[in-house]
Amino acid sequence: MSLFFLKIFDRITLLGNLWLVVRIMRRTTRTLGDKKASPTTSLGKLKPGITLQDRYLVLGILGSGGMSSVYKGRDLHFPNVTKLVAIKEMVNLAADPTMYEMIIRNFEREADLLATLSHPAIPRIYDYFTHDASSYLVMEFIEGKDLEATLREQDDYLPEEEVIKWAIELCDVLAYLHKHEPQPVIFRDMKPSNVMVDQHGHIRLIDFGIARVFQPGQKGTMIGTEGYSPPEQYRGEASPQGDLFALGATLHHLLTRRDPRAEPPFSFSERPIREINSAISAELESVVNGSLAYEPKDRFPTADAMKQALLSAAKKTGVLSSGATAAILQPSNEVEEIWSFECEDEIRGTPLVHNGSVYIGCYDNNLYALDAKTGEFQWKYATEGGIPTRPTAEEEMIFVGSEDSRLYAVTASKGELIWTYYTEGPIRSSPVISEGHLFFGSDDSHLHVVNMLSGNRAWRTEANGPIRCMPLVANERVYFGCEMGDFYSVDFRGELKWRFKAKRALTSSPILVEGLIYLGSMDWTLYALEAEVGWEVWRFRLGRPTISTPAHAEGRIFTGCADGNIYAIDARSSREIWRFTTEHQVTASPIIHEDSLYCGSVDGSMYCLDMRSGRLRWRFRTGAAITGTSAIDDNILYFGSMDKRIYALVT
Amino acid sequence: MDFLDRLLGKRKHLAPDIIDTAPLDPAMVEQVEKVALEKGRILVGTAQSTGLERSHNEDTLFVMQGNSEGEGSLPNFGLFIVADGMGGHRAGEVASAISVRKVAHRITQDTILHLFDEQNSDEIPPIQDMVRQALEVANDAVVERVPGGGTTLTVALLLGNYLTIGHVGDSRASIISDNGSKAITRDHSLVERLRELGQLSEEEAASHPQRNVLYRAIGQGTNLEVDVVSHPVPSNGYILICSDGLWGVVEEDDIQNIVLNSSHPQIACEQLIQAANAAGGPDNITAVLVQFPSE
Prior knowledge:
The complex is a heterodimer.
Chain A: H1 10-14, E1 21-22, H2 31-34, E2 51-52, E3 56-65, E4 68-75, E5 84-91, H3 97-116, E6 125-131, E7 134-140, E8 144-146, H4 147-153, H5 160-178, E9 185-186, E10 195-198, E11 203-205, E12 212-213, H6 240-256, H7 273-276, H8 282-291, H9 303-317, H10 319-322, E13 337-342, E14 352-354, E15 357-361, E16 366-371, E17 377-382, E18 392-394, E19 397-401, E20 406-411, E21 417-422, E22 432-434, E23 437-441, E24 446-451, E25 457-462, E26 472-474, E27 477-481, E28 486-491, E29 496-501, E30 511-513, E31 516-520, E32 525-530, E33 536-541, E34 551-553, E35 556-560, E36 565-570, E37 576-581, E38 591-593, E39 596-600, E40 605-610, E41 616-621, E42 631-633, E43 636-640, E44 645-650
Antiparallel strand pairs in A: 2-3, 3-4, 4-5, 5-7, 6-7, 8-10, 9-12, 10-11, 13-44, 14-15, 15-16, 16-17, 18-19, 19-20, 20-21, 22-23, 23-24, 24-25, 26-27, 27-28, 28-29, 30-31, 31-32, 32-33, 34-35, 35-36, 36-37, 38-39, 39-40, 40-41, 42-43, 43-44
Chain B: H1 2-13, H2 26-38, E1 43-49, E2 59-66, E3 77-86, H3 91-110, H4 127-145, E4 150-159, E5 162-168, E6 172-177, E7 180-183, H5 190-196, H6 202-207, E8 213-214, E9 227-232, E10 238-242, H7 244-247, H8 252-261, H9 265-278, E11 285-291
Helix pairs in contact in B: 1-3, 3-4, 8-9
């Protein structure tokens, strides 16, 4: 399948106008405003089966946009074989005769220019002609896919090896164009949609609509594609260094998957490649940065120089020879362990630090109390089921839910039972205290509200499925989700205020920040809901399901996901700020302390990241998956691992 | 949507700045405002002027606001739009008028009408997506129907305690309160970008010959990137949406002083227009000001 991406700027190019909106000119008459003809009259009018010039049989349309269309055709001068061609059609809508002539001249110039070029990465031109009000260019038909489609069709990052290979080929063809005699040719519109990868895996530059014979020192028209264009192009200057900038912008897009058209111009330095895609080598990043310098003189002097830099980056990292980058393994932990304590089974719960002790539940059915400073054992209380939740405390009372369906209240100092409350299903929801009551869910599909002192039920309300998240109590409302994907807002009498439905389970606990509720779902989505009436304000699509509870700091929402990433998302605009990739699912919830983010992964490591950039500060390896959330108290980080240990680390 | 078309259609033929407005009795205004704000109501003001140098007005504004009281009442809602058109041969005002209609129509249909549903529908897309789509629809309409025309557009959709702002171009939405004034939109102008990059100083930017060059606007191609942000309603504060005929001419501090010291948003808007015209009125001026009660 061949895709010719048609530039929306074609019409503007052909009319020699500015694509930028120059508002200072708005009192002057603009050529475009004079046209009476509708631009939609005859575009894409060629139906399959029509033959042009008694030679080119139209087989179908490949693409259409602006003032031109591209068709797939067959050359009938080769009756015995199927020789495919691409036919670019441009409709001349100018009413003014001078303008009409100029359009034809520009078209023929493109054709003549293409005809003089001979390079394996540049499509050959076979023919051109004008018929009625349309001009046609007959070109080599390229079997393949453009890089924009390649990016779109793939969910993952493109491998460095592949991108570097394309980059070297692109430098080759730019060097050829820039050395063209008698005058250099500036491509001026390098971007993913203008680069095809053919069926042999080689790149081909398409659409020379705006490439023009460069006359040194002469200011050209401001044309090009927003997002990829160099700063000087806005001033109307075109130079070989401008093509290198656009190539750098294209590579940046390929490596980070961040479309520069969606970002302010020249903001690449705000999105460092390796902060977004840590798999990329520092060497390649520095070549791309070198081509994206604001001043043309600070970029590579020639395409050949950039190619050399790419080759040496490839050599250093070995991407072109080995075909794979080996992760640099750091055998030892880079952070100091203060103590660790071994239980008898896996720990999936979250610790609570209260009055100098750490309380944590374990799958050996016990609730443990340890000295927070030394890790010394204080007491344990045996329930009859695993404890996947976080305990909560109020002065001398500790509360914890167990898979044995009960919620326990025990004394903080000795672990002696005060009362027990029974539900009709395992408790996997952590209790939260508000107004002297405990709010928690159960697999019996009820939200339970229990008097903290007596252990008696105040009320309960039924949900559509098991409740495993920690309820959120705020503004005299209780917010909670269930395993059927329903999310509820009820008042303190249990009366429903509003309901929201996700497509899958809501195991992630909701958080409330500035009137918005954030929570993740097994339907691969992070939601932001208005707390008062329950409108969905935005949603962010994740790579996999999530059960991680979001964290908030400095206007950003952080969450883990089963796709292995920890995400930072702008709370106001829902745009991704960074993501950090671990080696396995992230089911734990991130927490923020000062300017660091701490989160465990199923890969067995606890990660400490720079909250603002997502850069790794340190990594601590345990013997098995970390699925619970951590707690920080007095600059000590506490968490449990499925290797049965509780760890205390220096933050 | 007839009523919307009527509203907007009518507006197109008005030249608001030449209508004689009888001055309101300030004492009465103050009293009315006090009562309204005490009741937790939202107050709105709008004003527009062609300015002193332009022959015609290419700006368009639109305001719609709803209050409801009683048990099980609707939450507050509102829609506030400013668009600043550009392009010769009246393409500018057509582009801004069409865009405002399209955006108002789409957002009313997709969000506001759902307020009247008796039951919550599960299939309503996120508000930010709907706002983004509304501007995309406007863009498609302008690309198709107004060749050579373009427009900025800034829309604030109020639903309950949240504002969702859709924005393209260099009109501005700002939150103003006793704590100061903060723009919540980012100008899509080349000069602003160069200033952000440290290539231009504040002063150079203010007088740069290319300060009117936008890198993003409605009607400039089929792929439009829309900025969408959500913001909690400023308790006891304001949101001001205005065209560059106001913010490019009147100092930020002066705007803030006028807003905070006037007795009603309508009076503030008229004073803002006067201030812009007093400073030369080089461009069309449009201001929409919404005052929120304290929580």
